[in-house]
Structures are given as structure tokens and as C-alpha cells.
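Hey,
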Amino acid sequence: MSSTVALTRYTANFVDELSKSGVTDVVISPGSRSTPLAMTIAEHPVMKEWVVIDERSAAFFAMGIAKKTSRAVALVCTSGTAAANYFPAIVEAHYSRIPLVVLTADRPHELRDVGAPQAIEQMKLYGDYVKWFQEMAIPEASEKMLDYVRNKAARAVFMAQEGNPGPVHLNFPFREPLVPDFTLENLWGDHRAIEPRNPAYDGKRQLSAQQLTSFLQELEGKDKGIIVCGPQMEQELTLAVTSLAEAWGVPILADPLSQMRAGEHAKDLIIETYDAFFRDEALRKKLSPDYIIRFGAMPVSKPYLFYVNENAHTLQFVVENHAGFREPTGNNTGFIFADPVLFCEALLQREHKPLHNKEWLASWQEMNQVAKKHLLTEATGAITEGEAVRALIDVIPEESSIYIGNSMAVRDLDTFFLTTPKQLSILANRGANGIDGMVSSALGAAVYGNPVTLVLGDLSFYHDLNALLIARQYGLNITILLINNNGGGIFSFLPQSQEEKHFEVLFGTPVDIEFKQAVNMYGGIYTSAESEEVLKKVLYESYQSKGLSVVEVKTDREANTSWHRNIWKAIAEELKDEA
């Protein structure tokens, strides 16, 4: 049997099993050594290939698809530093729990560590950031080897999605010749085998009746509880958490990425402005709880982190779908490893529940209303970053997704994204909280489904400008709200801002770029807005057009910082006066 036949059958069986296991999308970056995988995927009758030239952008693009679809997405690249460029997205996928199947081509063993070109050490290249690594065998076409390669494909997809999802890595050593022969009969193997080779049934975890009783006993006699919902993507949790909060009479502190602030569910108990009034230490002390139950990851809000640290001895529980210890404060915390929806439903079925303190709940609701009043106050001068977020929420279409950037963008969303009946999905890269790959990720989310609006700052936009080629290449519809304060606006809120000698060079880092030219280069529509009303108009128009639209809002870092601080001060003063 020729080496070409062996290569073709080996690779075709692997790719076909990926498809049978549920992989529909593969993001490919061009290269020579990856030819067998790339061509076979492109030839497959079911899979959709996306060709993205830059590997770093490709990996974030794949992550955006996986995040939006909740399906594993595969990546293919050639050997050498191409694989290294995946690393930032793999780190983010690890911490964000996003399933990726990373397929790196490699030189065969005889060309490693001998000075061959484009050969680096790819064994366990991503370390502990992948859930599972396999060095694949040299291609053969025996029945045993075709079984082997299908088993590895099925296991890779399962491992990427099992438990807490995450990336897996398979490294393929290929010898030349590299071009498959697609004229072979029965190219994809046994067509009668429609199901995946190794079907796996992974059930949901629940607490036992005794464990539920023990948990409720720990809340005995406590009447000042709060439910916290941090970043998470499970839409079913929204109704489950609100139902539990209503039954127990406790407030819900809803992070902007919790999926709790938007939708048709009841929102009377949702407190979305806690970040604003938690900035005052006296108000945090006034709201000291008896217990905290948290769903999802740690909230974005830094003042919430202060609140938890100051209540280190408060009884606290974190509910996780699977194993994981996402509690950065180091406080004494109980972990509940169970499906969060089933956990809420099981608690609702119990007659026993914590004490209901109406005054406690009312105090949270009153503070939330005061904060909302101030957060809706218009600025007197040029448009601010908070007003830009408010304008977006007003005009964004139903059934949309917001992909929010890190640093200042997500914090402004936290502050100014007030509850709305609109059906919105809020996405972000909050695993490692980096600014890289934001445009690529949002474009990945725009591949399927509802309209996507990316909100980010100028540094994040600059960092991933090359991703705009993907929008032009595939005609993807996306609106980018670019908030340009000419530098790192978040540093203006940090102690570094007081170091005038070094601040601008080391932290402010203005780039002084006319982004309009870059948008035009990639065939996008560019507009700008200097007021909230104009911004609403141009955003609305962007949703009526196809392709890439970039709406730029230019703000002043110093004025923006002062405006934010004045609002927080006004909220604290009014709440203290009422107390």
C-alpha cells in the first residue's frame, strides 16, 4: 500500500469521526505540513471550514464560534510557531471553559531536534492549559489503525466537552508526500456507521436528599441572605434563580454577564447597580449578609470583591456544575457541585427554607432605585463612555448578542447596563481577561444566529485589527461600537494615574490612529457620534446594513474619570442621607 493511500485513509477516518462526534466547524490556517488535515476537512461533505490566515486570530475566532454555539470547534495549523500563536486563545478557552479541538501538524520524529526548518518542540506545547494531549501515530491504513484514529477523534471531542469544557490538543506527525488522494473508494469509511464510534452519555449531577437537608440546616435562623449570579451562559438558570429568590425573599446581585439583566423574566429582585453603591465602605457595611450563594464565576465588579473580603466570616457557597474552585478571596467557602438548575428546583420543592426578612430585601431594592436614577442622568458635555453603553441598550435589536471587551468596556457595561425586557445574550472573554483577540472572538460569535455588537476600547481594537479581514472574507454581519479614549482608560481609575511622570508612556499609551482608514481598508462602513442621540441613530442604521459597521465614539479620559466619580459620589451621598 502506498504512503499516499495510508495518509488518505488515516486522515479521512479521523476527520469523518470528528464530524460524527458533533464537530461542524473547523478553523484552518494555511500551511504545508497541515495539508492532509486541511484538504480532507475541506473535502468532507458535512464540515464547514473557515480559513483564517493569522493563527492567533484563528484561535480566538474558533473560540467565539464555540462560545456562541456551545459546540466543540476544531483548529488546524501547520508546524512551528504557527502552533505557538494559538496559545493566548487556548489559555482563555481553558479559563472560560470553552471546548476546542486543537489539531497541530508536525514534522515526523526523524526531523525533530536535528535543525530541520519549521520544527519546534510541540509535545505538550500548551502544558496544563489543555485537558488532554495526544501525540498521534504516523499514518497507516490497517483496520486496527483506522479504528485507532477514529477512537482518538471521538475521545478528543468528548474530552473537550466533558465536565468543565476546555481545549484538547492532538499533534499529527506527517511525512511527505502530504497531498491526499480523494479518488479512493469508500473514502470516509463505513457509511452505515452514522453514530459516533464511542457514544458517551454524560448525566447531570444532583445533591442527595441528605445533602440538601444539611445545606438548609446551615442556613437555619439566618434571614439576611443574597444570591449572586456571576458570569455564566446557561439561559435556563435565569428562571431557576429568580424563582428561588422569590420563594426565599432575597435579592439577586446580577453580574452583566450573568444573562439575568435582560429577558422577559421577573426582575423585581434583581440588583444590577451594586457596583455603584458598593464603592462606599459605609454602605457595604450596612449591607453585611448572613449568607451568600453564588452561581457562575466571580463577578466583574471590584467593589463586590471588597464586599466579599470584608465579610470573610459570612457563610458562603459557590454552586458549580462540575469540579472547580473559583473563589479568589480565599474565604472559607462551601462548594456545591451539582447542576445549578436542578439544585434550585430541588430547593424549591423543600418546605423548609431560610427566614424571610422583608426589611433586608426592601433596603437593597431602595438603594438600587436610587443608583438607577443617578446612572440615568445625562452628561452636560460631550458623550461619555457610560452614555454610549446606555444608548446601545436602548437601540440594540431583540435577540441580539453583545460581545463586550475587557478593561473599561466591561466595567461600563456593569455600571450602565440596567435591566431590560429585551432578549439579549452577553458574551465576553473573562477567563484570563485579556484584550487580545476580541474582534476575532466577536466575529466567531457572528457566524451563526443573531446580530452581534462588539463593544471595546481603542487599544483592544488596535490589538486585533487584522481580524477585520475575516468579516470581509465571509461577509459577516457585525456592529463594532469603538469607544476611543486614545489609550488605556482603565488606568485612569487606578493609583498609577497619580504618577504623572510615567503615566502616559507606561499606562496611558495613546496610539493616535485614525481608525476610519483601517475600517475602509477592510471594506467596512465607518461612522462616528458625538452625542447620545446621534449615537442611537447611527447604531440603528448599522443594524439595517449588512457586513462590517464600525461606530466610533471619541471620549476624553480625564473627563470620563471625573464623570464616573461624580456619579458614584452622588449615589453614596443620597443613600447616606436617607439612612
